[in-house]
Amino acid sequence: MTNDKQQQEEELLILKSILGETITDLSNENDQFEIDIEFQLSRPFHLRLIDNSNQLSTVIQHLPPLILTIHFHDQYPSSIHSPTFVLSSCYLSRTYLENMCRNLDEIWEQNLSQPIIFQWIECLKEEFSSVNELCLTNSEINNENDDPRAMSSYEPDRATPIYQQLIEYNQEIENEKFLHEYHECPICMSNDISGRDMIRLHKCHHTFCRACLHDYAQMHINTGSVEWLLCPDSQCQLALLPSEIKIIINNNELYDKYERLLLQKTLEQMLDIVWCPRCQQAVLTGNENDNLALCDQCRFAFCKKCKKTYHSQTLCAIEQELIELKEKRRKALLKWRGLKLTEDDEKNLLREFLAVARIENSTRLCPNSMCQVPIEKNEGCDHMYCVRCRTNFNWSEAKDQTTEAKALFEQYGNDLDKLNEEIRNERDDETDINNLKVLELPLVTKLLMSRTKKCPNMNCGKHHVKSGASNYIICQHCKRGFCFSCGNSVAKPNSHFGQGCKRHSDT
User: Any idea which UniProt keywords this protein has (predicted)?
Assistant: First the structure.
């Protein structure tokens, strides 16, 4: 017996040196103890839930430890009887634990009269190394054998809450490991940041250091772009949770500003919400056909379209503007369709228009009101000299050409086919939407209608594009001059301009 007791003490001493805090003494005589056994799970390991209504599955990396309680009897290990043991678990069924008990019995039978606890521990650790899932079900489990060594609190009707508890346990262990490891921040590229100074986002699990996330969130809140508070990873578009933002900024005043901006952005996206022009409170509107909006805060009744005092008997100014824009757009499109240009004439006109846009993109007008010839600057200082009227001026002070023509050149360049396709799309467009911006004339149509004029010569009738500020146009086909402003023929420019029409004017 003395020899058995000595072997028990030696075995327990070795187990304590190996297992550390996972082994706990339950007796002062060193003959009863408890061991927490961490399973070595295969990767990936799936946790599944099967109940009457649905089937759920998730990947986990950790399971709560299995409790192995050992009691050495006086004749262990020399006796043929193994130590007394109990397996305890809150999520493994009694049937599962009974199978594990039989496995431990088989190991003892193969190693009679030898210290056996460490082999049992290794066997239990590897229980899930050869399988890749644990299935929880609410179906009744048939227990034909009732092994008292298998103690389980798992009940089929508690499968769903146990499933959630196992997921929470896995998350807690993962967070604990994360806090004690060092990580790299993909923003500042530091690779020795403690997990306590890192934040792992809940939705996508991307990690960034607190300092970078704080600056990132503060920038969006201060600029008002809270709707773009997304994961900073370039390949991820998941939004940050409000709880994460509160932890990141760690500033109550700044977080209150974030909540106000987020509420405002959300309300602005709601079609039935308008803002009171008097107290700036959100107002819920009712009937779509009625423009009345009544603020609950200040009791101000106003028109939800023009934001002025409610006018039930008069047409809203915005509605009137919409009607005028619709009519203006309709007439302009009809006028363009009525030109009835041949295919070659239309291509030549568009080619000439692109050439004029290219010139205006690189030139400025001479500041002399009697000259205003386009001048190009290719190098040198800011000082310029007009060779036509001998005027000295600074390039930075000279008048730039029309921004619309420059925008046309920047958009289409020399691509005549692309411009021609845009013309056809605008010509066939029958848009009739109650939107002021949409109803404005398309850029190409607007420029063509304002910058082209037909030669008044009855035998010619060719269309020309105005270049620069000069209203005196010489037809390149019949070589006759005419006024771009009034469209009449001009035989003597000096006598025509200055009385009714200006020689130079903006387009």
Answer: Coiled coil, Metal-binding, Repeat, Transferase, Ubl conjugation pathway, Zinc, Zinc-finger
